[in-house]
Amino acid sequence: MKSIIRILLVDDATEILETEKQLLSFHNDFEVVGEAKNGKDAIALVELAKPDIVLMDINMPVMDGIEATRRIAEVAPNTAVIIVSVQEEFQALRGAIQVGAKEYLLKPFTTESLAQSIRTVYHQMERSVRATTTQVLSENFRSRSRVISMLSAKGGVGKSTIAVNVACAMAEKGKKVVLIDLDLFFGDAALLLGYSDLSRNIYTLMLEGDHYLEMVSSYLFTHACGLKVLPAPQQIEQGELISAHYIDDLVKALRASYDYILIDTAPALTDVLFAALETSDETWLVSTADLASIKNNQRLLKALRAVGSEPKLLRHLLVKRGKLSERAVEDVLSLETFSAIDYDPATICSAADVGIPAVLEHRASRAVRDLKHLATKTIAEESRRREPRVKPSRLRFLARGAKG
């Protein structure tokens, strides 16, 4: 369904107003909401009718189009002005652009050129307003939302399994959690959760074009535990078409509605990975206790530092599969272990095969206990981070009172 674009016409010549109305009447997505014959009346009508677009003449009595455009930019920043002028008014036209006009049309013009200019400017303004709204929402909710990216240089280390199970454990504790599968070529988060209908995924969401941020919630599927998931594309070539700039906008939009956003990334240095790390509050690096995994993760961290994409807060998760000790792994990576997770293939793999997260079924497993502990630890840490700090002076006062 097309949006109706509300238009105000401003020109001191009646015949011009009539011509513009006639041209606009050929398009069912345009609605003329008012007419004015000078800039002063135009400002009053903008405040009253709140049009999307103003078609503004330059030379008019009482107040010209330049001054009217400047004031409209101040009082109605979500209304766009398109200047309608003749070639001889080129200098004035430059002045109008400088004070806030978004486009100009030279008289005479065709219905096609008029319609194209209006739609182009309208969609530009729409994107700008949406981006501003997303930024405001992101800033408002940033203090209560946490974005965590999962990272590893190797596949098969359990990164996706950890992401799915920790996300489910958090959701079970009443947290609003969304998991984004950014392994765009081979992502299987949805399958690990027993979800087979992948027709709605991050790729088909992006096909919504300018309106994709408004459609995010309808593309998330809900697991029985309460977790929301945005699956990876169904086909490899679809993953190649997803641009990094979408990721930042997507995460900012989701911050407004969720306590935790977990991002499962692919083991590859891509612009999408860099975008995920940039927008994340912390990153969990997953390793197994074998030399190949540790060496590759060491090289990955070095590469990220070299291109200026080192995670803001890096934490190491060690899956205890392999012969290296936890201390040896920490020495190689120069990174303390944030959480060590037992390797229990009988439990974890069997749960994955049937699409049921292990944390929901195998509560006696040591691996499950470790995963649930990681979820609890993360939530507790975040709760402490959000608690208001008591000023030192107040603490000293309380201490003196206790002694007395």
UniProtKB/TrEMBL annotation:
InterPro entries named among the record's database cross-references: AAA+_ATPase, AAA_dom, CheY-like_superfamily, P-loop_NTPase, ParA/MinD_ATPase, Sig_transdc_resp-reg_receiver
Domain (Response regulatory): residue spans on this chain: 6-122
Modified residues (4-aspartylphosphate): 57
SMART domains documented for this protein: AAA (SM00382), REC (SM00448)
Transmembrane segments: none
CDD domains membership: REC_YesN-like
One GO MF term attached to the UniProt entry: ATP hydrolysis activity
Keywords: Phosphoprotein
Swiss-Prot/TrEMBL GO biological process terms: negative regulation of cell division; phosphorelay signal transduction system
Highest taxon of the lineage: Bacteria
One Gene Ontology cellular component: cytosol
Protein name: Response regulatory domain-containing protein
Native organism: Ferroacidibacillus organovorans
